[in-house]
Amino acid sequence: MFGRNYYGHSTQFFGVEEHRLIGGRGDGMRLLQVRNGSGVEFTVSADRCADISRLSYRGVNLNYMSVGGYAGPSYYDDKGDNWLKTFNCGFLTTCGLANIGIPQNDQGEELPLHGTIGNQPADHIWYTSDQELIEIHAHVPDMQIFGRKMELERTILCPVGGSTMTIRDRVRNTGSKTEPLLILYHMNMGYPLLSEKSVVRINSSKVTPRNEHAAEDLDTWDKMIPPTAGFEEQCYYHEFEPGRASARIYNPDAGAGLAISFDPSALPYLTEWKMMGEKDYVLGLEPMIATLDGRRGLRESGKLPFIGPDEEREFEIRVEFFDSMEKFDSVR
Question: How far is the C-alpha of 115 from the C-alpha of 310, rounded, in Å?
């Protein structure tokens, strides 16, 4: 894409730079800053499951960052819902692998809100970059003595000069017994992509409110409102016909949008987390393997997924970026 004789170092246009934060709760955190030369820029947090903390397209911010900001894994508190204290949201926070949803006790094990994988640092992370493709690779263990022995291998792919990003995960059970497998991709849209002007489309075949409060506004699940004091979150489960699931958002005022797509045979649900509060203003579009009833609730309903010894499971999410309503309408 770029004439080689027109620049010296490739990072004039594209590539990966490694940084460390200084000060505050994020002190020492390893960050990989990625630019693809055509407007896609994102930050990978090596010490937080190689999740994506920041994302922008052609200078427009797309993600939500919570009031807590960056916090290293040493600040993580696994009691109950204290996960929220270090939940910086970002564009992607991975949840699982032992639990998603509400904290609870299952077969004698205390399970925190959304599991622990999102607070595990990658023990090995590296990248490759050339004039065609940027690749981030990370290995994230989720293991304990006398307990589960799981690992996540993540690859993030971003074509140079393109308008897409792909997150490709392989989860492996390296232990000798069958284990529950729960995973949720907590993908968080924020201002200026998110506002009352945002247009949201999800190609679901069925939409189910999570509770009675969400049911009150079921007919406006796709309508965003301005930040509202005292807003109580609303969650909706989306299910899909076989094929390709898609959730997309575009804001004409910002001139930017994105589409998230995935295989519903691997990730059968998407939770729409509609949180329109002041300061807490975020729309979650969250592909997941099961509903948010927690491991015990899923076990009791017979809907708990499992993974056997030496078994692998693969998940892939594609993100496409666009800057016009015409491109938004063309995404399926």
Answer: 21
Q: What is the structure's pLDDT at 5?
A: 84
Q: In Å, what is the CA distance from 301 to each residue of 16, 108, 221, 288?
A: 45, 18, 26, 17
pLDDT at residue 220, as a whole number: 98
What does the pLDDT read at residue 8? 86
Q: Where are the domains of the chain?
A: 4-330
Closest of 149, 136, 150 to residue 92, by C-alpha:
136
DSSP reduced 3-state for 151: strand
Q: In terms of Cα–Cα distance, which of 134, 164, 133, 167 is closest to 152?
A: 167
The pLDDT of residue 165 is 98
Amino acid identity of 78?
D
Exposed, middle or buried, 240 (CB in 10 Å: 0-12/13-18/19+)?
Answer: buried
- Label residues 225-238 b or e (16+ Cβ within 10 Å = b): eebeeeeebbbbbb
pLDDT of residue 4: 77
The alpha carbons of the chain give a radius of gyration, in whole angstroms, of 19
Tell which residue, 111, 80, 76, has the closest CA to residue 96.
Answer: 111
pTM: 0.97
| Alpha carbons 216 and 205: distance in angstroms, whole number | 20
- Within 10 A of 321 (CB to CB), how many other CB atoms are there? 23
Regions of the chain where pLDDT drops below 70: 1-2, 332
| 320 beta partners | 164, 259
Is 4-330 a domain of CATH 1.20.81.30? Answer: no
Q: Which of 131, 116, 45 is nearest to 83 (CA)?
A: 116
How many other C-beta atoms can be found within 10 angstroms of the C-beta atom of residue 329? 13
Identify the DSSP state of 210.
Answer: S
What number of other Cβ atoms are within 10 A of residue 278's Cβ? 11
pLDDT of residue 313: 98
Beta strands 245-251; 199-202: pairing state: antiparallel
Question: For residues 32 and 21, what is the distance between their CA atoms, to the nearest angstrom?
Answer: 11
